[in-house]
């Protein structure tokens, strides 16, 4: 586990593509998956690593056998329309956490989540959140096993095809075992 480097961008884009094509084939429109531009995605990830929008944004990678096998992107949480800040304090968001399926069940996802949690705690974050596709029972089970719960917020994203409904999960970091 380490912070991503600019040279990891192509590997991060590859992990995202393989994971989306494997795990989200029934969730994301075929046009999105088949029209994937890996070079553009790598450029986007390189920019996220070298020029994050705020000091609170970051990208971490999981490495096995000298290969990037997973990653997590995190940053300050954006509030929903009409949403007040959480009374416990600042919130951060896991923007994405993906582990290439062939490297799954080896603890990479748990270590990525723990690292994001540790960084958030160190920055004074009181609450972490993540948006998950409603149909993604695997990721929901992963976050639930780490002590996260749904918080009642739902959003619908325009994917260029069938709208994607997402539910928000969260954990309070000051609770015993929260985010672990």
Automatic annotation (TrEMBL):
Q: Which PROSITE patterns match?
A: GNAT
Annotated GO molecular function terms are:
acyltransferase activity, transferring groups other than amino-acyl groups
What protein name is recorded for this chain?
Acetyltransferase (GNAT) family protein
Which InterPro entries does this entry report, sorted A to Z? Answer: Acyl_CoA_acyltransferase, Bact_Acetyltransf, GNAT_dom
- Per the record, the domain of life is Bacteria
SUPFAM superfamilies from the UniProt entry: Acyl-CoA N-acyltransferases (Nat)
Q: Which residues form the signal peptide?
A: none
For this UniProt record, give its keywords in alphabetical order, as a comma-separated list: Acyltransferase, Transferase
N-acetyltransferase domain span:
1-174
- The reply to whether Acyltransferase figures as a keyword in the UniProt entry is yes
Organism of origin is Geodermatophilus pulveris
């Amino acid at each position: 586990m380490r912070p991503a480097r600019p040279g990891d961008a192509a590997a991060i884009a590859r992990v995202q593509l393989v994971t989306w094509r494997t795990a989200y084939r029934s969730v994301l429109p075929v046009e999105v998956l088949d029209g994937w531009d890996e070079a553009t995605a790598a450029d986007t990830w390189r920019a996220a690593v070298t020029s994050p929008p705020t000091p609170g944004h970051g990208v971490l990678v999981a490495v096995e056998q000298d290969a990037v096998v997973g990653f997590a992107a995190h940053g300050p949480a954006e509030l929903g329309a009409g949403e007040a800040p959480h009374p416990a304090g600042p919130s951060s968001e896991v923007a994405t956490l993906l582990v290439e399926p062939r490297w799954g069940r080896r603890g990479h996802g748990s270590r990525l989540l723990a690292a994001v949690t540790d960084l958030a705690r160190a920055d004074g974050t009181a609450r972490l959140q993540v948006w998950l596709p409603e149909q993604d029972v695997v990721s929901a089970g992963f976050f639930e096993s780490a002590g996260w719960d749904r918080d009642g917020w739902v959003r619908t994203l325009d994917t260029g095809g069938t709208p994607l409904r997402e539910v928000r999960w969260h954990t309070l970091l000051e609770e015993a075992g929260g985010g672990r």
